[in-house]
Amino acid sequence: MKLSSRIAGGLAVACALAVTIAGCSGGGQTSTPADDSADAAAYTLVEDGKIIVASDLANAPLDFVDEKTGEAQGFEIDLINAVADKLGLECEVLPAMKFDTIVPLIEQGGKADVGVSNITITDERWEQVDFTDSYMDSNQGLVTLASAGDVTEESLNVEGTKIAVQAGTTGASWAEENLPNAEVVALDDPVVAVTGVQTGLYAAAVADLPVMTYLCSNSFTDCQVAIEIPTGEQYGIAVNKDNPGLTEAINGALAELEEEGYISELEVKWLGAEL
Questions:
Q1: Which residues on adjacent β-strands are paired with residue 227?
Q2: Which residue, among 132, 164, 158, 154, has the nearest Cα to 240 in the 3D structure?
Q3: Which range marks the domain in which residue 151 is found?
Q4: Within this chain, do residues 24 and 110 fall inside the same structural domain, yes or no?
């Protein structure tokens, strides 16, 4: 899991991450790095001095809501807070929203600066938003009851079999493409999907592997990741296409955080080991 080759462009602004916030432009706040050199790219923010984050907060251990405190937490929440610190900004995470509304919200602009919700970089999403360099590689995981024993794609790809997925995700796309004979049921989040497997409502559920592994190891110990699906996905932070300076600045912050070993620390903290 390494940042992609586009990281070189982000390094050009790493020296300019300490920002000062200037006046309002185009309905957002224009931020200009303290370094006024030609390489120091300006960017806009929805609110002065703050980076506002959109997430579904439904994918532990990457992003979720702590039941005791009601606060957002997880690998990605720690990561975007660290990025904000590098940029000299406060970080605000909006209330949880449905996953398939996040990219359109960032594309529209005006309500959130970035989308951070284990969003896989795809060509289709690239048409709507820009992405930062990747900060994590991932595959998909198919979950069944542990008592189901060995399960194959062929055994699930039959009429009458219900497969739960999260709406608008790459897991949903995989299930629709590879299990065409089954009934694919789109739900709001992976927890609801795995709950349905646990209760026997669905034969299986498909979602991002780190999330499914975590759920089966913690809240749903009577379930198993029956199939690891090697999709070779990469997560990126979604940014409005009209805000390339912000993408560059975040790339610079991610480069520093990786070099400092902070991303590896988060992997150990939230995933149990470096990836």
A1: 142
A2: 132
A3: 139-231
A4: yes
136-145 and 183-187 strand pairing? unpaired
| pLDDT tens figures, 106-119 | 999 999 999 999 99
Tokens for 262, please give them.
Answer: 């902070």
For residue 1, tell me if it sits in a domain: no
Backbone angles phi, psi at 136, to 5 degrees: -160, 140
Count CA atoms within 13 Å of residue 200 on its CB side: 1
CB atoms near residue 186 (< 10 Å): 15
The two tokens of residue 185 are 């049921």
| Region of poorest pLDDT, from 6-20, 46-60, 63-77, 158-172 | 6-20
Q: What is this structure's pTM?
A: 0.83
If asked whether residues 123 and 48 sit together in one domain, one would say: yes
| DSSP element (H, E) containing 21 | strand 19-25
User: Is the CB of residue 90 less than 8 Å from the CB of residue 49?
Assistant: yes
Report the distance separating Cα 61 and Cα 82, nearest Å. Answer: 17
The amino acid that residue 212 corresponds to is M
Strand order in the sheet with 162-166: 183-187, 162-166, 204-208, 136-145, 223-235
Asked, for residue 169, whether it belongs to a domain, the answer is: yes
Angle (CA) 169 213 120, round 5°:
30
